[in-house]
């Protein structure tokens, strides 16, 4: 099983606490707001060292950032139905 970062949760928590994308960029030590925007929108991945900072600032356990992703496995039976 693989896991993905729950970007919707991160965005909703950021908004709940009233942080701007610029604030988050500064917290994470990023150069620009656009660098944070790309992470929050999934264009760039959050780095492992950034997750503890997010956890602290968003008052959320790091484990809550991860959601399981189940890859679709096509079986022979499913192919015959098509």
Automatic annotation (TrEMBL):
InterPro entries: Cro/C1-type_HTH, Lambda_DNA-bd_dom_sf. This is XRE family transcriptional regulator. Signal peptide: none annotated. Residues 10-65 form the HTH cro/C1-type domain. It comes from the Bacteria.
